[in-house]
Design a protein that fits this description.
single chain, alpha+beta, two-stranded antiparallel sheet, six-stranded antiparallel sheet, globular, about 250 residues
Amino acid sequence: MAINTDKNSYTVLFSVIMVIVVGSLLAGIAQGFKGKIDENKRIEKQQNILYAMGVHNNEGDSDVTFISDTEVQQVFPKYITKQLVFQGDQVIEDQEAYLIDIKQEEAKAKNSKEPYERRLPLFIGEKDGNTYYIIPMRGKGLWDAIWGFVSLDEELVVQGIFFDHKAETPGLGSNIKERYFMDDFEGELLFDGETFKGIDVAKGNNDPLNKDKEDNAVDALAGATITGNGLAAMIKKDLKMYIPYLKTLKN
């Protein structure tokens, strides 16, 4: 008996079968590549953390060049000497603290029916006789997520920073990951005396070359006000959680 392909029921049934088949194929492909995807995420996090503390392959004045994929897994433990996880009153060492998903931790703390203290990772690095304290951050830009790592010394002066984004406007908000913008944060202070200020991304702060490192601000990107505001809010929100530990470094 011939199938009447003009009937609506046939169209619906065919569509459902195709969705199931294609969905199953995509799920199978994703599962097959899961190991590689997870490995790439580990490598990217290690590269970003190292970049924030000044371990990279930059050569010119404007390039952003990470430690290569083939080298980073050997270089990472050489420079990152300790990884800490803060959770409530507890502090533990965990050599895989960098794998903590801070997006998931934030969601757990916000949505859990039971009280949940989120895990806060912090990385301690050593380079050229100097100690670096690297903190991860995650926030909201204009269109989607923004994130990064900030590196501090014992005086809580920014030694380096790395930013990235998911969907900021090309040529505007996307420039948060450009070298000229990230470099402006070096030398900036997070505190004004004993008061935590963070770092504003300010329009018209009368310091376009960012020579004033005690104003708790860097010059904003043109045409990216909302992204800049989100960046400043991210820095204040996430670094604020580490204040009890950070203050022990200054004493």
